[in-house]
Specification:
GO terms for molecular function: adenylate cyclase activity. The chain is of the alpha+beta class.
């Protein structure tokens, strides 16, 4: 127990050191590696890190757990090897750098220059090979991958310990913090998947915007041009019925209970609700709105844009604000 006590004390000191250490960030346009000497561990002195504004891409094998259950371990080993090599070589060809391989998920980061074109074209290459080559060479597997791309500022921090010897590389790594990594990962989570969504269809009488007001608002009552022709300023709700869709969270947050035994709802007079579900199909490549716009700016004459192969997704993605554009794009090399 004495050894364990000392180890706990050592770890406590390490955590206190990290909390007290100052961080400084160097702006870069290149993709750092774990051997970058300008990145430091800290350990009692200022911890040096980097900032990079660029595109980050994640690629992931779909249904890998189900595939592992169905197929031989040797087959899955070959599949993982093939997929990783495709991502590594595609990244290199399009100027990107693989900076993480976790099981069946690969992270690729691009230098700032031309990052939109490089990232999107890398995504197309990976999708092409997965769709046209890997799937055909691994018979009976129905192989698919999902790809997500986002753009923004990444903070790169070296973590681990400065251990020497054979284990040196295994005891250090880079952490990529910031929204682009999180959003690209979220997009990858649903890319090339069919998701089931539960939602609520709520019927209500909308709130009357003139209620409780006289004077000027009351004078607007007879104006059909302003959409107030049927409104009375002495009625709290409009006579018309509107139907709105709500997520389970939105529906739960909108419920009120003004009178015992009766359901109320915000922004209107509650009439009825119906719980429903639907399937959402996402294409293999998903781009954030920022990436799509950046790609259009850098490569406005690209065939995928001219032929409108990229479509705005009608379904939202968790934690992703703004529009998402998707496509199942491959290279026309025949």
């Amino acid at each position: 127990m004495a050894k364990m006590k000392r180890k706990i004390e050592e770890l406590t000191e390490d955590i206190e050191d990290i909390i007290q250490t100052e961080f400084s960030y160097i702006t870069t346009v290149n993709v750092p590696s774990v051997t970058d000497t300008s990145l430091t561990f800290g350990n009692g002195e200022e911890k040096k890190a980097k900032e990079l504004k660029t595109c980050v891409l994640f690629a992931d094998i779909r249904s890998s757990v189900a595939l592992t259950k169905k197929h031989h371990t040797k087959t899955m080993g070959r599949l993982y090897s093939a997929f990783a090599k495709v991502c590594l070589k595609a990244a290199h060809h399009h100027g990107g750098y693989v900076r993480n391989i976790i099981g069946d998920r690969v992270m690729i980061v691009f230098p700032s220059a031309n990052c939109f074109v490089n990232a999107v074209e890398c995504a197309i290459t990976i999708n092409h090979v997965c769709n046209k080559i890997i799937d055909k060479n691994f018979n009976g597997m129905d192989f698919k991958c999902g790809i997500g791309v986002d753009y923004g500022e990444l903070k790169i921090i070296k973590v681990g310990t400065p251990k020497q010897g054979d284990e040196a590389a295994e005891n250090r790594g880079l952490v990529w913090t910031g929204y682009p990594a999180n959003i690209a990962s979220r997009l990858t989570d649903v890319a090339n998947k069919t998701m089931e969504e539960t939602y609520y269809e709520v019927k209500r009488n909308p709130i009357n915007p003139l209620y409780g007001f006289g004077g000027l608002l009351g004078m607007l009552r007879p104006s059909p041009f302003l959409g107030t022709g049927n409104l009375q300023n002495d009625e709290p709700y409009q006579n018309r019925v509107e139907t709105v869709e709500m997520t389970p969270e939105e529906f739960a947050n909108s419920l009120t209970n003004h009178e015992q035994g009766k359901i109320g709802i915000s922004l209107g007079k509650f009439i009825s609700f119906e719980k429903k579900s639907r399937k959402k199909n996402y294409p293999p490549i998903l781009l954030s709105d920022t990436v799509y716009k950046g790609y259009k700016k850098e490569s406005s004459t690209d065939n995928s844009l001219l032929n409108k192969y990229w479509e705005k997704e009608k379904y939202t993605v968790n934690d992703v604000n703004g529009d998402v554009f998707g496509g199942n794009i491959i290279w026309d090399i025949d």
